[in-house]
Amino acid sequence: MPKSSKTSEYTAKNIQVLEGLEPVRKRPAMYIGSIDSVGLHETIREIIDNAVDESLAGHAQNVWVVLNADGSATVVDDGRGIPVDKVPGYGKSALEIVMTKLHAGGKFGGGAYKVSGGLHGVGSSVVNALSKKMWVEIRRDGKLYRQEYEKGTPKTDVRSMPISESRLPEIIDDSRLKTVKSGTAATFYPDDSIFTEPEFDNHMVLKLIRERAYIVSKLYFHFYDKRPGKEKEVHLYFEGGIISLVKKLSEGKGPIHLPIYINQEQDGVLVEAALQYNEGIIENLESFVNVINTVNGGTHVTGFRMALTRVINDYGKKVGAFKGDGDSITGDDTREGLTAVIAIRMEQNKIQFEGQTKGKLGNSEVQPLVQAVVKEGLETWFEENPSDARIILNKAYLAAKARLAARAAKEAILRKGAFEGGSLPGKLADCQEKDPEVSELYIVEGDSAGGSAKQGRDRKFQAVLPLGGKILNTERARLDKIVEFESLKDMIIALGAGIGETTNMEKIRYHRIIIMTDADVDGEHIETLLLTFFYRHLKEIIDAGYLYIAQPPLYKIQIGKESYYAYSDTERDKVLKEHGNGHYSIQRYKGLGEMNPEQLWETTMNPKNRILKKITASDAEEADRVFTMLMGEEVPPRKHFIQENAKMANLDI
Asked: For 557-604, where are the alpha helices, taking DSSP H only?
């Protein structure tokens, strides 16, 4: 979209004020979801999305994002710049109102923005309230304006000054900035008295930027990480939009046809969809509303899936692919090996999100609208590409056959009462507690470690399930193969939630599921296989926050009569430095079985002392890529990864 030179259309009269800022510091989680790393990155997302909104409005062409060495973050755009004239009825600069008043901005019907992605319009003021310091520079009409804040309170008036006094040259060395006539630059320092994890993760920030670069095609992003030891510079620009994203998501999975692209505006809503099937069995679907990644889907995703299922079934009947009247393909069948992106754009004031941080779209009218657009687009594509349409139809038909085989295998087990808890696995040492909220299951490698864990545990709330040897690589395994594999079947039965289309998280028997393997190569391999199983087939457990990895000690250090446990090489060296002025011995634990039950309890299972690593999948795209690369059939990407990262490996030979 061409950049407009007319800044007069976005002025103080576009700013509306709804309420004050005071509640934000008292209850930050109400506004950004949490005060951990996720909440921290919500703050930078808000400022980035304000910049992206300027592009969606047809004004910005570049966005700069900088992680500074002092812990602050800077976001710059070349849009119109926040207005600085006085807001009628308030006697203050529009900039000050936007930065210090909750629900103040140009996104509440003032006409400045039709499409935007900010947090209900409160983004800038919320970020300001949760920052130790913040300063904003505005370029408008050939002038520079600046205001500084502390914890949301202005420390200076909005001051006008020469362009030469801008702080940006100290932060960004980019020749593009020298020609920028208008725009907004914001630098903020997250308040470490509020955030439990105040340090930005460049991978998470890059993910935010990359998503927006795909969704808002032809917008340049420039990312700089200037922190010591983390120096990085990335420039992103995608001409192809969501088609480029689908191609990226399909890498290494063996696409079986060229991407399908649908783009149509209907009733004021722009619907974009891109999809491509691959040789795998895993679905990877991403959805967006404006530039917000709706990680929990919503009505736009439902409409897309309904259209896809209907079109494939209709086409199958049309070409005579189904032999009997009862033959049909379900929604699950059409999702096998599907990579898709569904993105809609609509007026901000009409969007209804479920949840403060916009994880799910709730607009009921969007479902039939998206369904109609996608159905029409797919029908046209199927008619114009009959050979590829046949390939897709055959893919779904094979998935249907596999589904029926899996159901038969599962029903055979159900007849024995296994999945219903009537017959728990013989190897499972269950806990006495029946309340899943306080119950935990240790999944342990081997009978030796399993024996120690069973003896050392607290039987009241800790259950133990030993696994026999290596488990199946489930990256490309269908359900019928999984339920036939003894160790996995035992685990599914012990968990109690079922698997596949019958998964019911209300029936899960433990809210802490802890993988506990040896601290060696074999143990890490089993850990990886288990993570693959949970991510690909019981991701609901990860999403619920129930999956953990135990961190057993690596060393037992004996100094005189005292024993110390160290969980890393750094901790070992620290213990030796603090206590190592006499004779000492070090035992390197190779396996859990080397610890007696008392030691295993004290170091790894006792809630008062243990260290657990919680498994999350905040970056689904990256997690999917890594699992495909490490556990899939394509060897070259895995070989390249090993060569690239070999020097980082800490080999314990």
From this structure: 569-579, 597-600
